[in-house]
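#onboarding

Welcome to the new folks! Below is a worked example of what a typical request in this channel looks like: someone posts a single protein sequence, and someone else replies with the predicted structure as tokens. Don't worry about understanding the tokens yet, we'll cover that in week two.

Example request:
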Amino acid sequence: MRQGQRVSSTWLLVLPGLALTLVLGLPVAALLLEGVDTQLLARLGQAQALAALRLSLSTSVVSTLLAVLMGTPLAFALARWRFRGRALIELMVDLPIVLPPSVAGLALLLAFGRRGLLGESLTAMGISLPFTTAAVVLAQLFVAAPLFVRSARLGFINVDKQLEESAITEGATHWQLFRYVMVPTAGTSLVSGALLCLARALGEFGATLLFAGNLMGRTQTMPLAIYVGLESDRGVAVALSLILLGVSAVLLAVLRSLERNWKLG
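Example response:
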């Protein structure tokens, strides 16, 4: 009787997990099977696919670099300093992660559009952001940078305070402490955050569509080209989807490797 109860209770745990695994795995399998019958190289050689591929890679790298350059000092300040308004800044940093893409795009338009909060000031300086490649970078930065800041902040929080105190005792300045102690020690978290940021930037769709538009060669990234390809050329959509799937899998594998090495270390 007890053996039968154990078997039934085991299946109560296993079956839901198997069901969710199928829900998550079947769409990926279907995409891979569809890609077998698609002339991948020929599809990617089309002008639309090449333009979208180049634009996605270049803008994602730029937005990730900007997130690292601006987000690393911010993450350090949020992790190690106590100041008034810190909780509000943390909320502002985390909020884009949970915002619907359409809301993110509308918010960018209301802030940086021609009639937005900064629209007149930007126009006076001869700057027009909406429906430009710069708008693509800004949209990617808005939705992806918080992932880097969160990861970097956790990395700085986990740095041994004794290292910090020892460096200060030895006469290190705030910059020397940040540059030679904090950043190397939290390096794994910084790299992991950058990879997450890059993956999120590559997959950005909604905010880019609303704020930057869908102009081929100028603002049409791979997710947007996939959306258009579903109506005009399904083969291009599948080929670009496989590229994004492959890049995402590689980034995830590198991230898992870093996490394992960090745990072993």
